[in-house]
From TrEMBL:
<dbReference type="GO" id="GO:0008119">
    <property type="term" value="F:thiopurine S-methyltransferase activity"/>
</dbReference>
<comment type="similarity">
    <text>Belongs to the class I-like SAM-binding methyltransferase superfamily. TPMT family.</text>
</comment>
<dbReference type="Pfam" id="PF05724">
    <property type="entry name" value="TPMT"/>
</dbReference>
<dbReference type="GO" id="GO:0032259">
    <property type="term" value="P:methylation"/>
</dbReference>
<dbReference type="InterPro" id="IPR008854">
    <property type="entry name" value="TPMT"/>
</dbReference>
<keyword id="KW-0808">Transferase</keyword>
<dbReference type="InterPro" id="IPR029063">
    <property type="entry name" value="SAM-dependent_MTases_sf"/>
</dbReference>
<dbReference type="GO" id="GO:0005737">
    <property type="term" value="C:cytoplasm"/>
</dbReference>
<keyword id="KW-0949">S-adenosyl-L-methionine</keyword>
<protein>
    <recommendedName>
        <fullName>thiopurine S-methyltransferase</fullName>
        <ecNumber>2.1.1.67</ecNumber>
    </recommendedName>
</protein>
<keyword id="KW-0489">Methyltransferase</keyword>
<keyword id="KW-0963">Cytoplasm</keyword>
Amino acid sequence: MLRRVYQKLQSVLSAHVKRMQPTSSRLAGKILKLERKETWETEWNDGNPAWHRKYVSPMLIKHYDEFTSGRRNRRILVPLCGKSLDMIWLADQGHTVVGVEMIRKAIETFFEENKLLYDVNTAQTSAGGTINLFKAKNKDLTLIECSIFDLSREVYQNKFDCIWDRGACTVITMMDEARLKQYVDVLLSSLQSDGRYFVMTFRHESGKNEGEWISHLPEDKLLELCGDRCKVELVEQDDIKNDPALLEAYATAPQHSIFYYFVTFK
């Protein structure tokens, strides 16, 4: 799905640049569709999303010890989790894993495909609403059914030691800047003072493809969003061609590089 959304956005942006006409309101309308639950429900109902990995992230495994500070029993948040197998793997390492996903189909598919029994409970939000929590019976793993923007302390209760953001930030970046800032603020407000935010972003090799979505979240922008409260450390850079799932999702953007960062409080 991300590939199709990406291609649509490319077409809109390319036409916008070439015409140089005041079409910002129409462009905003296209981008804001990404915020609508119906957009993602359609894609999940259509089948297996292109961005889903059928394997655990190699970079998560490679940098696992540093990510968790070599400790067990970490509370780990996975935003926009879908049915990521990373959650199963992290739970099997002895951690408490909490995923956030607003599409019920994705949540139910995750439990069904991994043959996990679960209970459904509810939590009150600060706005007075209720949110469903899907708790696995035989693993320390919970999926919260809500928009990441509705995630609050009333729902998750205790702050997290670690946040694993594999591509979620990329989706938010395709919304607008205010939403991106809100997203980063939500995550950082949920992180312990000595916690670690492990985020994957993309950067296009600028100028190779006309009309390309040039930059998803460059390091200077990440620094700006985090402000003086955090430090950002580049962990590793990789080529998108080395990741089959990402190359499939971003088939029209083979010139992208993948960047992995640790964000920590100063």
